[in-house]
Amino acid sequence: MTQINPQNARLTEDFLDYLRSTGKAETTVRAYESDLAIFFVWALRFADNKYFPEISKRDIVAFQNWLLRENKNSPARVRRLKSTLSSLSSYIEAIMDDELPNFRSIVRKIENPVNEAVREKTVLTEGQAQEILDRLVERGQYEQACFFALALYSGRRKSELLLFKASYFDDDNIIYGSLYRTPEKIRTKGRGANGKMLTCYVLAKPFKPYLDLWMKEREKRGIQSEWLFPDKSDPTQHIPVSTANSWAETYSRISGRDVYLHCLRHYFTTSLARADIPDSVIKSIVGWESLEMVNTYKDIDEEEEIGKYFSDGEIIGRKDADIADL
User: What pLDDT is stored for residue 309 in this prediction?
Assistant: First the structure.
């Protein structure tokens, strides 16, 4: 890294400081930093260590080709890296126009590679999800079972699951006799340094058995931490993302399928939809801003959707849904 063009190193520092000044979350800033490091190391090796404003369209094409063919990045990853370079270009145009009045962004002039799925979507059945929970309990892996159940019955993202506190799961926080509602808002993905703050919901009835097992185990181990899933080395902190990723690998080995945590967001949404809960209510429970997101995450095909309203040669009405039955 010390061999990178000093002008590029300074440009990176200034750009990252600018992002912080606009309220970007530190995790976002670090992601930009990582992306730029990849590009500038590539420029050091293959583009004569050029100062970024001197990079040509031919250089961008070569970088994109290297990412795809040599570095084996997915088209989506290439798009992300190019987006970072485009943001840096916009910064130069807006902030450094007095120093570089003739600079013009060229990154977007280069066509992106065709996006393609690099991972087949995993759609878990109720039986497959239950098998994972049963195996974890049999092994005495109560924390992992509780984490899996929380993802399954809340639909929260991986980073959000880490932020749940043990105190959230008090009977006083159950609403409608069916849902745990977090007494304070949790930081979720979104714009700004604090992201989007949301009240989160968890289906109480199916989640509680695994919560009880883990809380009993915590008491047995003498664990005292506000976090539901505390870091072993420092209980004042929650587990890192790397631990959640390793648990997902355990779930995959048990299932024999690729069980990534985001697929449980699909499972939760689909479960609500199969209970005939209206899309508008699902949208509110998960915290989406658009109904389109509900359709994205519910894995119900057209035939199944139509079949809900016909049975034994008869047209059947929409049944009343009760979330307590989930």
Answer: 65
Where does residue 2 rank: exposed (0-12), middle (13-18), buried (19+ CB within 10 A)?
A: exposed
- Residue 155 phi, psi (nearest 5): 70, 20
Question: Which residues are CB-neighbours of 32 under 8 A, at least 6 positions away?
Answer: 15, 16, 19, 84, 87
Which CATH code of 3.20.20.120, 3.40.630.10, 3.30.70.120, 1.10.443.10 fits the domain covering 126-257?
Answer: 1.10.443.10
Q: What is the pLDDT of residues 212-251, one digit of tens each?
A: 999 999 999 999 999 999 999 999 999 999 999 999 999 9
- pTM beyond cutoff 0.85: no
Beta bridge partners of 87: none
The class that CATH gives domain 6-109 is: mainly alpha
Which positions ≥6 away from 137 have C-beta within 8 Å? 145, 210, 213
Q: What is the pLDDT of residues 3-50, one digit of tens each?
A: 999 999 999 999 999 999 998 888 889 889 999 999 999 999 999 999
Q: Coil, helix or strand for 175? A: strand
Three-state secondary-structure class, residue 38:
helix
The DSSP 8-state label assigned to residue 52 in this structure reads G
Higher pLDDT, 300 or 28: 28
- Classified as helix, coil or strand, 277 is coil
| Alpha carbons 55 and 69: distance in angstroms, whole number | 21
Beta strands in 57-111 (DSSP E): none
Task: Extract the tokens encoding 167.
Answer: 């105190």
Rounded Cα distance, 71 and 78, in Å: 10
